[in-house]
Amino acid sequence: MSKREIPFLYGKEEMNVRCPEKNILSVVAPGAMPKGKNEEELVRNALKNPIGSKPLTKIAKPGDKVAIVTDDHARPRVGWKMMPFILEELKTAGVRSEDITIIMGTGTHRPCTKEECEHLLGKDVVANYNVVNHNMDDKDNLVYIGMTSRGNAIWINRIFAQADVKILTGHIAIISFGFSGGRKSVLPAICGRETIYYNHQHDWITRANFGSLENNIMHDDAMEAGHLAKVDFILNVVLNLEYEVIKAVAGDMVTAWMEGVNYARELYTVPLKRQPEIVITSGGGSPADDTLFQSLKGFQISYLLMKRGGSLILVANCKDGIGDKELEHSLKLGPEEMFRQINEGEHVHFMADIVNSGLEKAGEVFLKSTLDSELVKECGFVPVQTVEEAIEKAFSIVGKDARILCMPKGLYIAPVINQ
Predict the structure, then answer these.
(1) Could you confirm whether domain 39-268 is CATH 3.60.40.10?
(2) Residue ranges per domain, the chain?
């Protein structure tokens, strides 16, 4: 039987997977992507020519307290490509360095270490500016700013809420919110636990579509939170698969971001002819697959594409383990107990909710990782030593003629099934 060798992102390297040629429905890959030439020029031009907004030099003034939200360790490392130029603009406006606070938008993630902050932002930035981690559970440092139309009480980081000038930075990519960037740097990045979990509730998160903003309640709710936070300015970038900046947008939280979204949509969505019986997906490579928590975003997009009763194979290194104790506890409950708790209004980890929704749809979910096999089983997955082993086991469930969708770049490219 003829087999094709397909490189999947796995940790900091690639893992070659041998897949039967006759079974391959599609290997999801982006179209021609630009190279990241003149990244600094793209960022500078965006700041000098903002969309729907005055430039930062006209917004900030001497004496202003400025708060800037930036992506944490679980996201691509792009802060260092943006932050120096924002700080340069603020200096031109007369803002003192001691009046600027950079907030690591950790959301539900662990705090960044000093070394990680230096890696993300640059040592000079960390040495000369106040850099702090957001903590969703530190209620003394949360401020209530209002209620969304869907009943979400928005509690956000106190430093950001009380700043005179509020700036969001980040990258635009496909996620369950539709696209990252923009308002996502408010919710979930700098919100309190209850606010985040309200936005990530079962009915919303299991209906959200990657790469789509239409009828996406999570996105709508987060956008309202962004407006309540009174964001003054954003700087977002679109990256190619080498994490190079290929477009930068700055200015208004909605209009500037939407220009970036429209560009990213063309790059990161691809058509798919039909639903597959088997999906093989990557957790996205490091840092996206350093923990099972982050790797599950690859799972999240994949199970929605798969036929009911099909098999899903997740290729994720998980070198740092599960990555969240609450997630581990919720996964170990199993689908039946977890859904019982949800129906009774009890709190479970939102990502476990996604996993168990996928487990309920799938015939089996296989995990190729570095995690202990017993732990993998306790979390509801079937551990495998190789992806080829998983493919053979999947064939035994769905049949030898099953069509396979291969997603070697994981969550970075979103297939859209043609209706």
Answers:
(1) no
(2) 3-30+273-417, 39-268
At 172 the pLDDT is 95
CATH superfamily of 3-30+273-417: LarA, C-terminal domain (3.90.226.30)
pLDDT bin (cut points 50, 70, 90) of residue 418 is low
Torsion, Cα 301 307 310 313, to 10 degrees, reads: -20
**Residue 412, pLDDT score:** 78
Q: Exposure pattern of 148-162 as b/e (b: 16+ CB <10 Å)?
A: beeebebbbbbbbbe
CA distance 93 to 114: 28
The DSSP annotation for 149-176 comes to TTS-EEEEEHHHHH-SEEEEEEE--EET
Q: Are strands 142-147 and 13-20 parallel, antiparallel or unpaired?
A: unpaired
Give the distance between the most distant pair of CA atoms in the chain.
71
Residue 13: partners with Cβ closer than 8 Å, 6 or more residues away: none
Please provide residue 136's backbone torsions phi and psi, each rounded to the nearest 5 degrees: -65, -20
Q: Name the one residue in this structure whose structure tokens are 């700013």.
A: 145
Q: Who contacts 147 (Cβ-Cβ below 8 Å, separation ≥6)?
A: 153, 154
Rg (the chain; Cα; Å): 21
391 vs 388: CA distance, rounded Å: 5
- Residue 77, pLDDT > 90, answer no
Q: Which phi-psi region, left, alpha or beta, contains residue 272 (left: φ > 0; alpha: ψ -120 to 50)?
A: beta
Which tokens in the block code for residue 153?
Answer: 């009480």
Whole-number pLDDT of residue 302: 85
How far apart CA 11 and CA 16 sit, in angstroms, is 13
Contact between 73 and 107 under an 8 Å Cβ cutoff? The reply is: no
Q: What is the DSSP letter of 23?
A: G
* Torsion over CA: 123, 249, 264, 39 (sign): negative
Query: Coil, helix or strand for 6?
Result: strand
What digits encode the pLDDT tens for the residues 173-209?
A: 888 778 999 999 999 999 999 999 999 987 888 777 7
Q: Which tens digit of pLDDT belongs to each residue from 280-292?
A: 999 888 888 999 9
pLDDT reported for residue 419: 52
Express as a percent the part of the chain with pLDDT over 70: 99
How far apart (Å, rounded) are the C-alpha atoms in residues 416 and 212? 10
